[in-house]
């Protein structure tokens, strides 16, 4: 299998179409009587992933490009309002396909996870903050990695060392990372129920005796750097190199998949665009794994 844009698009379309044929309840709800959509759900998922891979943050510009260059893959393409509406309605489908692809990789069963959160900026001017439909969810926060304040949300991500998303959550910028992680684990208890002795690597923000006790209750052993005044912890010599893995995964989202250039103005719009990028990274890792590529998180073969 050759790693290029057409091959990953074809593989994703076939996989999604097969899943929807076997489990039609996964498709977005539609009335029993009505006009049959011209763009199928499998085509919508494929179109969304290709948009993120090619770096189009403007949906209108993306659809113009698709009409000029991708007619061989998509005989029908909607207008921008229709595409946006379909994408927002398909968020649950995107999430389900993400999980199905992730479990179909050789790294899904890895016994080491990394956890971190990264800002998802939603506005920079005071006028946007006052008028945004995200008010009440988005809030001011601070990003220590880049030494900057921002207004928006945080993407909390648990992934393998290869960058494969395992669990994720989108919260306000001030949400406690530890509480969010525990909520993510409580929401999907089967993730750790079948993984006794799972190791989780986090940064200094994931601390606390009670927090580690709750993780131990899930069968998870936490590794993190020591905080000031703490005695030496196991694995301290590994954190410098592993921290670069965490930052590299975040950079893939921000630098190659334009996470902070999502242009979402409502909660539904932001969720759909963030989910689109998580699915895109998962798709690339899945396809690289299936085709035997040495670097699973590489997007280079698909961005042109």
Description:
This protein is of the alpha/beta class. The chain has a domain at 112-262: Nucleotidyltransferase, domain 5 (2-Layer Sandwich). It contains eleven helices and six strands. Strands 1, 2, 3, 4, 5 and 6 form a six-stranded mixed sheet that branches. It is globular, with a radius of gyration of 20 Å. The two termini are 18 Å apart. The mean pLDDT is 91.
Question: Can you give me a brief rundown of this structure?
Answer:
With 304 residues, this protein is an alpha/beta fold.
The total of beta strands comes to: 6
Structural class from helices and strands? alpha/beta
Largest sheet composition: 6 strands, mixed
- The amount of helix comes to 40-55%
Task: State the shape.
Answer: globular
Query: Taking all residues together, what is the mean pLDDT?
Result: 91
Radius of gyration: 20 Å
User: Whole-Å distance between the termini?
Assistant: 18 Å
Specify the number of helices. 11
Topology as H/E string?
Answer: HHHHHEHEEEHHEHEHH
Q: Using the 3D structure, state the CATH architecture of the domain at 112-262.
A: 2-Layer Sandwich
CATH fold-level assignment of the domain at 112-262 = Nucleotidyltransferase, domain 5
Query: Beta-strand percentage?
Result: 15-25%
Catalogue the unreliable spans.
none
Write down the CATH class of the domain at 112-262.
Answer: Alpha Beta
Write a concise keyword list for the protein shown above.
Nucleotidyltransferase, domain 5; 11 helices; 304 residues; 6-stranded mixed β-sheet; alpha/beta; globular
């Amino acid at each position: 299998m050759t790693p290029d844009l057409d091959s990953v698009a074809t593989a994703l379309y076939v996989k999604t179409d097969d899943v929807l044929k076997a489990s039609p309840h996964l498709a977005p709800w539609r009335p029993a009587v009505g006009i049959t959509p011209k763009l199928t759900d499998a085509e919508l998922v494929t179109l969304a992933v290709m948009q993120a891979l090619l770096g189009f943050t403007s949906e209108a510009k993306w659809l113009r490009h698709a009409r000029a260059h991708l007619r061989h893959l998509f005989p029908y393409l909607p207008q921008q309002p229709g595409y946006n509406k379909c994408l927002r309605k398909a968020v649950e489908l995107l999430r389900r396909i993400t999980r199905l692809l992730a479990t179909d990789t050789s790294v899904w069963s890895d016994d080491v996870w990394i956890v971190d959160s990264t800002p998802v900026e939603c506005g920079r001017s005071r006028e946007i903050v006052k008028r945004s439909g995200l008010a009440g969810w988005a809030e001011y926060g601070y990003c220590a990695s880049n030494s900057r304040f921002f207004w928006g949300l945080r993407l909390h991500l648990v992934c393998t060392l290869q960058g494969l998303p395992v669990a994720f959550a989108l919260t306000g910028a001030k949400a406690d990372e530890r509480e969010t992680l525990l909520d993510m684990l409580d929401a999907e208890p089967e993730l750790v129920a079948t993984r006794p002795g799972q190791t989780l690597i986090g940064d200094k923000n994931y601390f606390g005796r009670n927090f580690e006790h709750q993780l131990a209750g899930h069968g998870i052993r936490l590794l993190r750097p020591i905080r000031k005044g703490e005695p030496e912890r196991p694995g301290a010599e590994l954190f410098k190199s592993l921290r670069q893995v965490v930052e590299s995964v975040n950079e893939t989202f921000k630098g190659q998949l334009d996470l902070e250039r999502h242009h979402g103005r409502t909660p539904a719009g932001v969720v759909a665009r963030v989910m689109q990028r998580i699915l895109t990274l998962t798709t690339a890792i899945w396809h690289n794994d299936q085709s035997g590529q040495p670097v699973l998180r590489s997007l280079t073969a698909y961005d042109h």
